[in-house]
């Protein structure tokens, strides 16, 4: 698995450079860019993980929380710079429903084919559920509903306020999880703690930092070119901006997470699989998105925290579904299938819109 | 109880025939049709149950799942043929909120008057809760919200896609319940299993099939005439199409289920009462309704999966309420009363609309 | 604490009278009125509590349930008389989200700074959750959605019907809690029962009734004048009617509850803190508000049960959040912070609107 990623990077990045320079056809380059980014995201994930182990749990948690969605952040910044506010919101929506429905759904389903019942920490599930309701059902719904009675300036003011609150609460959640309440709710499953104790970093500190830096720069470069192909791709396949953002960009940006969550589920490490799926969602909703709202103030087109109604409703209903299915700390193949069915319904919806 | 049904059928069906032939006044015929259908539904229920026992649990579960709402399916097909798409969606909405609020509410309330606390399987409740959120809050909400940005053709395309997914998931749920995870979650309440072991069919296979066939044909005949009286009834009582569909047709179509759920609650068999109320809801939402959407392609007026907002909101909020009240596996009279109060509020709403 | 309240009353009420007579500037009087009402609410609370202990648990519960929000009821009646229907609905919305997010949030946060984990009865939490969904998500949402297809008269008819059902269910809930199921769900925490057994009233019956009567009259008098200052205050600070109602009036009307809930949380009596926060919400939603709808029939401007969308969505999402955070019977500082963050988001929203 890891080797495939490494080879893809070694081949994909130079080909991306050459193709961009020689102006190969958009569809071909779109595919090359996507594959290269998926491979680079895998590298960034491994580097972050190694660094997290070296640095200890607290700074490690912070590193994971900040770099975990680096690829999405970078793609989004270039989209923002190009004024494609709609695509940024769409791809973040896609990231949320992709993680909650597709990543979690595949994990539950594949894991459930091997094991009759799989379990994970109820406390973790409830903690995440509270944050999901806060971020998606309050912080995203309020500006949507309130902004219909506001002018553009007030909407942006509200968006900025909410973004700051989201970021503050995101770091407060890390403080809660890694400092004040570390291990408080874990009494009954020490397995995980033991597992963590054994962990050895794949790479040393120096190598990890170098890989992280180089891969991030490469992603940035390719992302900028990827964004430039959206127009041609949309016309070639008859896909709307919304569909490209929500389904395509989201799958590309999260491919590495998809792979590792499923592998963890197959190893019956459901706590890790859940952490990847839901933790990543919270990262996008409470860190990446608000950072982008604030960054947009530096660009010519500002981005308010206002989704389209289909986007918002997709996220809200996904949150309700995943909460219902995870709140009992128990999964099986059928619960995975429900999530996948929900993802398919939304995919069809965004295709037709 | 059973005798009353049998006598009602023996009297009601011929009177329906004669009345229809002699063109008796609409209001009288409306009442006769309704009573006859209620009685026939009781017969169909008994025949299906006998057949289910004879055929064993797997095919039996399938039979119950398919014929359980045969009456509603038949009435709806005739309404669809008459182009009354609005009434079909209304009566299915009525069936959903009627089962979730009225049937469950009466069961909890009546059972609760006799027993201080009544309990049932938490696992079953959670399984149902996941399906209710999937079917009502995702599969019904998505086309509602997305279709406002779609033309008629795309809306129908989305409706067809969702209908197929609903039906597939419905059968997957049966597979999960009766094959792959049969008994997996039942360790702590073997009572039910024992009770099932004792069950004897009321009728033999042959008699059950005959009754099923004849009663179904009679329901079909009467339903067609019942649909024809809606116009006159609406004018006579000042009832809107919506009110007739949601309250009247739904009560008539589900009367047999109402009766048996309450009897089960009174016998403290809450698992069965819940299964009737919520299982029947899921059947309507995941089987009857999508089948009707697909069947409507054969008629001149197609039926998209798009409810009116009051219908949709009634279903969504009913789902949230029933999940909250059943998720702890414990009921009492007051929880029943909450459900009945919610039903009354919606009834008043649909009356005034 | 109690002494400060008593002194505030002794100083505040005469100053209010003099200021009103001499027509001091609105902003000054607004502040004096608010402080006096907060102090009087404290007195009313203590009188009600003393009386409740003297009269025994059943009538005591009824007294608490009726007089607990007497101040809000009185302010609202004067607003209603002045035709300020919008402010009444806004202040009740503010009371609901203020209790659910600010009072509960501060309690959880402050209590959580002292204790790592605080717990309370799961059964109570679930009972409250069911009522919150019924009152806010069904009884408030249905008229909102249905009324868009109704004329004014039908909307009022629906509002009256729902109000009666809310009041009936409110008293049924008291019957359930204090009569039919008293102690049924409390087997595992007898602490509270013991604590109740020890309780001694602060004042005798006679003194309590006198204080209650005099303080209520004083609140009524001051409230009438307070309502008269809203116009000037709004203009002076650039606050909308909505913001004054939802944030300012709600904080003033509930200040006494805020104080006692936080004190209880600090003493680790989370059951009482929760009862104040959520019980008070239910009182407003199921008793104060429907009473006001019915009373409005006596005034020139009737008040339908129809909120603005931002108000309704704020209440609905607050309910979902508090249910998720309390359903496990366990709180900590971070859950308190989530609630406070949600309140801040809504506060910013109503400020900008």
User: What coarse outline of chain A follows from CA principal-axis ratios?
Assistant: globular
CATH topology of chain A: A middle domain of Talin 1
Element-by-element helix/strand order of chain A: HHHHHEHHHHHHHEH
Reported for the largest beta sheet of chain A, the result is: 2 strands, antiparallel
User: Greatest chain-chain interface?
Assistant: A-B, 30 and 34 residues
pLDDT under 50 segments of chain A (min length 5)? none
- Over the alpha carbons, how many angstroms does the gyration radius of chain A reach? 20 Å
Structural class of chain A: mainly alpha
CATH-level-2 architecture of chain A: Up-down Bundle
> What is the name of the CATH class of chain A?
Mainly Alpha
What's the assembly state of these chains?
homotrimer
Keywords (chains A, B, C): Antiport, Calcium, Calcium transport, Ion transport, Membrane, Transmembrane, Transmembrane helix, Transport
Protein name (chains A, B, C): Ca(2+)/H(+) antiporter
Family (chains A, B, C): Belongs to the Ca(2+):cation antiporter (CaCA) (TC 2.A.19) family.
GO molecular function, one term (chains A, B, C): calcium:proton antiporter activity
Structural write-up:
3 copies of one chain form a homotrimer. By secondary structure, chain A is an all-alpha fold. The first copy, chain A, has one domain: A middle domain of Talin 1 (Up-down Bundle), CATH 1.20.1420.30. Chain A contains 13 helices and 2 strands; from the N terminus they run H-H-H-H-H-E-H-H-H-H-H-H-H-E-H. In chain A, strands 1-2 form a two-stranded antiparallel sheet. The longest helix of chain A has about 35 residues. The mean pLDDT of chain A is about 85. Chains in contact: A-B, A-C, B-C. Chains A and B meet through helix 12 and helix 13 of A and helix 6 and helix 7 of B.
């Amino acid at each position: 698995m890891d080797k495939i990623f490494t080879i893809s990077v070694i081949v994909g990045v130079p080909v991306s450079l050459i193709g961009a320079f020689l102006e190969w056809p958009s569809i071909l380059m779109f595919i090359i860019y996507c594959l290269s980014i998926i491979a680079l995201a895998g590298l960034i994930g491994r580097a972050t993980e190694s660094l997290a182990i070296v640095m200890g749990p607290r700074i490690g948690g912070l590193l994971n929380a900040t770099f975990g969605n680096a690829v999405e952040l970078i793609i989004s910044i270039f989209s923002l710079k190009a004024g494609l506010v709609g695509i940024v919101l769409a791809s973040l929506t896609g990231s949320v429903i992709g993680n909650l429905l597709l990543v979690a759904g595949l994990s539950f389903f594949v894991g459930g084919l091997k094991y009759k019942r799989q379990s994970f920490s109820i406390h973790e599930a409830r903690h995440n559920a509270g944050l999901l309701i806060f971020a998606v059902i309050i912080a995203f719904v309020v500006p949507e509903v309130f902004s219909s009675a506001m002018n553009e300036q007030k909407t942006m003011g509200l968006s900025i306020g909410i973004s700051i609150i989201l970021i503050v609460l995101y770091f407060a959640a890390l403080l809660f999880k890694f400092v004040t309440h570390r291990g408080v709710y874990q009494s009954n499953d020490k397995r995980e703690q033991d597992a963590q104790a054994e962990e050895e970093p794949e790479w040393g500190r120096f190598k990890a930092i170098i890989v992280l830096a180089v891969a991030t720069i490469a992603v940035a470069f390719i992302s900028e070119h990827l964004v430039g192909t959206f127009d041609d791709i949309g016309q070639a396949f008859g896909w709307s901006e919304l569909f490209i953002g929500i389904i395509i960009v989201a799958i590309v940006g999260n491919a590495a997470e998809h792979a590792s969550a499923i592998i963890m589920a197959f190893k019956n490490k459901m706590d890790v699989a859940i952490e990847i799926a839901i933790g990543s969602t919270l990262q996008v909703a409470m860190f990446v998105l608000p950072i982008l709202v604030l960054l947009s103030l530096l660009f010519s087109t500002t981005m308010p925290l206002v989704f389209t109604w289909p986007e918002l409703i997709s996220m809200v209903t996904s949150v309700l579904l995943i909460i219902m299915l995870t709140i009992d700390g128990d999964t099986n193949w059928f619960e995975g299938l429900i999530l996948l069915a929900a993802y398919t319904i939304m995919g069809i919806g965004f295709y037709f819109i």
